[in-house]
Amino acid sequence: MPKHKVHSDTQSALADVVFDGMTIMSGGFGLSGNPEKLIAGLLAIGVKDLTVISNNCGADGFGLWTLLNNGQIRKMISSYIGENKLFADLYLAGKLELELNPQGTLAERIRAGGAGIPAFYTKTGVGTVVAEGKPVEQFDGESYVRETWLRADLSIVKAWKADPEGNLVYRRTARNFNPNMATAGRITIAEVEEIVPAGALDPDHVHTPGIYVDRVIQGSAYEKRIEFRTTRVRGEAQG
């Protein structure tokens, strides 16, 4: 059993793999499936001049927003700015580089990076600013823009369960970008809610095989955040 994969805390997991100017993939979609303890570790270490690949950049006071607010991120490769006012303000002020991708294209670029496919073609973005400066070719009479893979020096992902070998299981929509990112990092560190004994995970239920995961840390006190709470008055029961 590779005991070295399990680290006691984020600092020991991150200490010898982070460096200024590196590229980091960070899982999550909105407030779901974010490696929040590892992000806090990056904040504490103070690594800077980062290029971060993530669907969005956290939310006010949470997740990647904290790195952005601390001036540690130089460039974001994302698909959604949304309600993140800090993200928008920094970009509009010229203090943050942004490579904006259609969401499906971002997901496929990450998947391609993990699969060793350096480029692929898609119709999404043809004829828009997304295609500017990129080759466009014809297939079966239709135009397709060429997109390139995304890979990272470090992928940080959030899973539900892991075993000591680094096999990961995600929970429902918290899976999102995490499995693809786990395959596309030179080093992948997973934070999980529970580490189970070796052999406890049904192989058919493993979403990310341990071969892709270099280190695992167990987090605690996760708050299941809701970005927008939408409610309605419950109607009277119909008899």
TrEMBL record:
Annotated GO MF terms: succinyl-CoA:3-oxo-acid CoA-transferase activity
Membrane-spanning segments: none
PANTHER family: ACETATE COA-TRANSFERASE SUBUNIT ALPHA (PTHR13707:SF60), KETOACID-COENZYME A TRANSFERASE (PTHR13707)
Domain of life: Bacteria
Protein name: 3-oxoacid CoA-transferase subunit A
UniProt KW keywords: Transferase
Keyword Lipoprotein part of the UniProt annotation: no
UniProt EC number: 2.8.3.5
Record-linked Pfam families: CoA_trans
